[in-house]
């Protein structure tokens, strides 16, 4: 019985280490939010292009989005560059370090610039609303 409990503890700890240290492959996660389908699980959120339009140029908007996301706790850039208008970030949960991937694409429109965002969890089926809250915070930071 003790062996079984010890084995379960070791497996659980190994899983937690894997969640925190698993490599993030840019080829898998740095995808165009304009053309990528919604994940098959409810642990994601989107901002569609045109929902927010600013009078600035796309490069300026991309820089503001980059600054807003990098100011959030435990967010780092995974791939892309704001100057190119296409960036993917990794946002990790506070305690266990679960990764979420946030991909942003900025676009020029007649009245200035807009953007598309896809924020999704890597593990699990539920994100407890974290991705939607992150995008709400991003909206607030840009206003």
Short description:
Helix content is 35%, strand content 29%.
Structure description:
The chain is an alpha+beta fold. Strands 1, 2, 3, 4, 5 and 6 form a 6-stranded antiparallel beta sheet that branches. The radius of gyration is 17 Å and the shape is elongated. The mean pLDDT is 92. It comes from Frigidibacter mobilis. It holds the Pfam family DUF1499.
What is the CATH class?
Answer: Alpha Beta
Q: What characteristic shape results from the CA principal axes?
A: elongated
Strand content: 25-35%
Average the pLDDT over all residues and give the rounded result. 92
Low-confidence stretches: none
Helical content (DSSP H or I, runs of 4+): 25-40%
Let me know the CATH homologous superfamily. Answer: Kinase associated domain 1, KA1
Number of helices: 4
Q: Main beta sheet, described?
A: 6 strands, antiparallel
CATH fold label: TATA-Binding Protein
Please give the alpha-carbon distance between the first and last residues: 58 Å
Total E-strand runs: 6
Count of structural domains: 1
**Helix/strand structural class:** alpha+beta
Please give the radius of gyration in angstroms.
17 Å
Provide the succession of SSEs: HHEEHEEEEH
Going by CATH, the architecture would be 2-Layer Sandwich
Protein name: DUF1499 domain-containing protein
InterPro entries: DUF1499 (IPR010865)
Pfam family, one: DUF1499
Organism: Frigidibacter mobilis
């Amino acid at each position: 019985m003790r062996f079984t409990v010890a084995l379960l503890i070791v497996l659980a700890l190994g899983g937690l280490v894997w969640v925190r240290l698993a490599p993030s492959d840019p080829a898998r996660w740095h995808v165009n939010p304009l053309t990528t389908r919604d994940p098959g699980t409810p642990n994601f959120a989107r901002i569609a292009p045109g929902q927010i339009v600013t009078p600035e140029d796309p490069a300026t908007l991309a820089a503001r989005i980059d600054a807003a996301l990098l100011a959030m706790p435990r967010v780092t850039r995974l791939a892309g560059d704001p100057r190119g208008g296409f960036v993917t970030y990794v946002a990790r949960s506070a305690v266990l370090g679960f990764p979420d991937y946030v991909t942003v694409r900025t676009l020029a429109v007649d009245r200035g610039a807009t953007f598309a965002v896809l924020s999704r969890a890597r593990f699990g089926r539920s994100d407890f609303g974290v991705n939607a809250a992150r995008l709400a915070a991003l909206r607030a930071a840009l206003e």
